[in-house]
């Protein structure tokens, strides 16, 4: 009986060491699928101090860099361009963002939701025409 207990104790120690000795799984590294493709974009600017929200016309960004998760690289640069344009027009304290998608229909759907939200909150919408403001590729740091 004592021999059986010793045998099982050794067997358990062996099993525990085998479980703890397994190599951890290495994370799978997926190849980056960054691509330069045309992207539709709309700039939106709003302020807590004003009841007017500004929307740019829908523009095609031909040199936009998207990764495989549809993330627009340097998108803050596009927002800063709109902010700088509004500052030049004398409009202070506006928060700017960019709505974008590679498919025009999906961007239009997203834009309709944003416009409906502004209409619900009684915020007037002003358009910024493409001949007045055009997005350009942001400079690299």
List descriptors.
141 residues; 35% helix
Shape: elongated
Radius of gyration: 27 Å
How would you classify the helix and strand content by structural class?
Answer: alpha+beta
pLDDT < 50 runs, ≥5 residues: 26-32
- What helical percentage do the residues reach? 25-40%
What is the terminal separation in angstroms?
Answer: 75 Å
Please report the number of helical segments: 3
Multimerization status: single chain
Number of E-type strands: 5
Main beta sheet strand tally, sense and closure: 5 strands, mixed
In short:
The protein has 141 residues and is an alpha+beta fold. The protein contains three helices and five strands; from the N terminus they run αβββαβαβ. The chain has a domain of 94 residues.
List the helices and strands and how they pair.
Blueprint: H1 2-20, E1 35-46, E2 52-56, E3 59-66, H2 75-88, E4 95-101, H3 104-120, E5 124-128
Parallel strand pairs: 2-5
Antiparallel strand pairs: 1-2, 1-3, 1-4
Describe the structure.
By secondary structure, the protein is of the alpha+beta class. The protein has a domain at 35-128. 35% of the residues lie in helices and 26% in strands. It is built from three helices and five strands; from the N terminus they run H-E-E-E-H-E-H-E. The chain has helices at residues 2-20, 75-88, 104-120, and strands spanning 35-46, 52-56, 59-66, 95-101, 124-128. Strands 1, 2, 3, 4 and 5 form a five-stranded mixed beta sheet that branches. A hairpin with a 5-residue loop joins strand 1 (35-46) and strand 2. The protein is elongated, with a radius of gyration of 27 Å. The protein starts with a helix and ends in a 13-residue tail after the last strand. Mean pLDDT is 82; it is low at 26-32.
């Amino acid at each position: 009986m004592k021999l059986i207990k010793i045998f099982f104790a050794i067997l358990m120690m062996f099993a525990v060491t085998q479980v703890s000795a397994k190599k951890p799984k290495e994370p799978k590294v997926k190849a980056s699928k960054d691509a330069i493709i045309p992207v539709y974009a709309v700039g939106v600017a709003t302020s807590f101090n004003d009841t007017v929200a500004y929307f740019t016309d829908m523009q095609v960004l031909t040199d936009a860099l998207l990764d495989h998760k549809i993330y627009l690289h340097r998108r803050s640069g596009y927002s800063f361009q709109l902010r700088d344009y509004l500052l030049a027009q004398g409009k202070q304290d506006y928060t700017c963002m960019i709505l974008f998608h590679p498919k025009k229909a999906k961007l239009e759907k997203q834009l309709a939701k944003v416009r409906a939200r502004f209409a619900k909150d009684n915020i007037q919408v002003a358009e910024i025409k493409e001949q007045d403001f055009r997005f350009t590729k942001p400079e690299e740091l």
